[in-house]
Structures are given as structure tokens and as C-alpha cells.
Amino acid sequence: MIEDFLTLRRHMVEIQIRRRGIVDQRVLRAFEEVPRHLFVPERSRYMAYEDMPLPIGHDQTISQPYIVALMTSLLALRGDERVLELGTGSGYQAAILSKLAAEVQTVEIIPELADRADGLLRELGYTNVHVHVADGTLGWPPAAPYPAIIGTAAAPRIPPPLPGQLEDGGRLVMPVADDYQQLLKLITRRGDDYDERSITSVAFVPMHGRHGWG
């Protein structure tokens, strides 16, 4: 079965990620190494490497592999960064980031998900990931500023505390939703200015908290 999952993971990387234009070798290697099937409920593991999001409980999902790869690649990580993730969820995105950055601070508003992800990440040896139960729309000021911030749920706008937690030149990637669509946004800090780009349409669960959907 382990060999079957390894084959499925390699197929996922080649067909769903590399062939869609993600060419950063460090990103591709991280997706080959992280066992995605361990981050989904046991009943769903046979679908872990399919081209789709999967439910993980509490009305949350683990995102489609390509979207995780796209968002990760937009951060343009070199390996020495401290990354902030908003919405730990299953812990899969944090595990990917742990392969690409020096330190990952990840915030989850649902205690049960945070506890489960923290336990799994520790069990699998991702020791540079630090899980916090808190409101992700407020960021995580104790470790700011960050060269990279990633949000894994859709807010009605970029939460106001987040851009100020970027260091100069830092990048923020997250989905933003209105009543009609969700767009993946890339924000880059340039001193006191912020460049904003819309990347593509996406579909994420709502981000809850003070600057989210309630």
C-alpha cells in the first residue's frame, strides 16, 4: 500500500502540477515527499491524490493539490524564510511549507483541527512548524514581520492587519471573495506601498474571524 501511495503521489506531481506549469524543482520535490494521504480522514485516503479538494471535518477542506502548489510557488521561497500560514486545517500546506522555509507559524481558529494537525505534524517530524489556536484574520504579530504570508480560506477582503505584518519585499497570497466570485490575490510590499495582482479564480471555504465572515 505504501508503494501504491508513492506511485499515486508521483503521478499527482507530474500530471496535476508539473504539466500545469509549476516548474520550481524545490516545490515539486516537496510535493513528492509529503504524504498527502496521511492528512485526510482515513475513509478518504483512496482519493488523497485525486485532482480535487477533500473534506476534513468542521466544514473545512484540504485544497486541490494544484492550487496548493500554485499558492506555494507564488511565495517564491528560497529556504531561509519565516512563513505565516492562516488556516492550518489538515496541516498539509504547513508540511509543504516546512520543506521550503526555515520556519512556519500557522494559525487555526478551530481548536480540534489545530490539535489534530499539530499532533500529526509532530509525529511526522515537521519540527519547524508551530501551530497556534487563534484568529488568523489578525495574523500572528509575535513573530512578525514575515517575508511570506499565505491564507488558506477566503476572506471578504484582505484582512487589514496582514499587509503590515509583511517585511519590505514580502509576499501575501490568499483568496478574496465577494458575492459573485473568489479571486486568488498576490500582495507584494514595496516600502509603504502594496502591489496587488489577481492570479486566478478559485473556490475556498470562508475564512472566519474578526475580519472574515463572522
Structural descriptors:
seven-stranded mixed β-sheet, 5 helices, 26% helix
Summarize the structure.
The protein is α/β, with parallel strands linked by helices and 214 residues long.
Strand content: 25-35%
Instruction: Please compute the radius of gyration using only Cα atoms.
Output: 16 Å
Structural class, please?
A: alpha/beta
- CATH evolutionary superfamily: Vaccinia Virus protein VP39
Low-confidence regions: none
CATH architecture descriptor name: 3-Layer(aba) Sandwich
Determine the mean pLDDT: 96
Query: So how many helices?
Result: 5
Helical percentage:
25-40%
Shape: globular
Order of helices and strands: HHEEHEHEHEEEEE
Total discrete domains: 1
Number of β-strand runs: 9
Biggest sheet features: 7 strands, mixed
Compile the SSE list and pairings.
Layout lengths: L1 H16 L7 H9 L20 E4 L2 E3 L2 H10 L7 E5 L5 H7 L4 E6 L2 H13 L5 E5 L12 E6 L14 E12 L4 E9 L2 E9 L13
Parallel strand pairs: 3-4, 3-6, 4-5, 6-7
Antiparallel strand pairs: 1-2, 7-8, 8-9
Describe the structure.
This protein is an alpha/beta fold. The protein has one domain (2-201): Vaccinia Virus protein VP39 (Rossmann fold), CATH 3.40.50. It contains five helices and nine strands. It has helices at residues 2-17, 25-33, 65-74, 92-98, 111-123; strands at 54-57, 60-62, 82-86, 103-108, 129-133, 146-151, 166-177, 182-190, 193-201. The chain has a seven-stranded mixed beta sheet, with helices on one face. It has a two-stranded antiparallel ribbon with strand order 1-2. A hairpin with a 2-residue loop joins strand 1 and strand 2 (60-62). Helix 1 packs across helix 3. It is globular, with a radius of gyration of 16 Å. The termini are far apart.
